[in-house]
Amino acid sequence: MSVQSSLGKRLDPPGSIGVRLTFLVFWGIDAVAATLFFLVPYASELNPVTVFFYQLFGLPGVLLAAACYAAVVILIGHVLSDPMDIRFVAIVVGLYVLFAANNVLLLMYREPLPELLGLW
């Protein structure tokens, strides 16, 4: 007879490895870009939690904040049941694509994505 903990029964990772890998890639790009925001004079981080962690711990605080965001997304994805878990992570991936694209373009061209597309 095998004994499983109740936590083990509740945690169910999303079945799509591709979606999870895509999340980690774009999360990584966004984390690096957010860190660079504190090193360049022409860009600033808008997320107040990241700014708070930066004020407390310096640059490691930015990475700590990013790790906390990833942990929350992963935990929520594990708690949701299939197919909601894949949908949730896919939506988060879509958001991170926008965040990472905006952050990288802001660092490269000194203008956010909406301005580059002529939306502002």
UniProtKB/TrEMBL annotation:
<feature type="transmembrane region" description="Helical">
    <location>
        <begin position="21"/>
        <end position="40"/>
    </location>
</feature>
<feature type="transmembrane region" description="Helical">
    <location>
        <begin position="88"/>
        <end position="109"/>
    </location>
</feature>
<keyword id="KW-0812">Transmembrane</keyword>
<keyword id="KW-0472">Membrane</keyword>
<feature type="transmembrane region" description="Helical">
    <location>
        <begin position="52"/>
        <end position="76"/>
    </location>
</feature>
<protein>
    <recommendedName>
        <fullName>DUF5658 domain-containing protein</fullName>
    </recommendedName>
</protein>
<keyword id="KW-1133">Transmembrane helix</keyword>
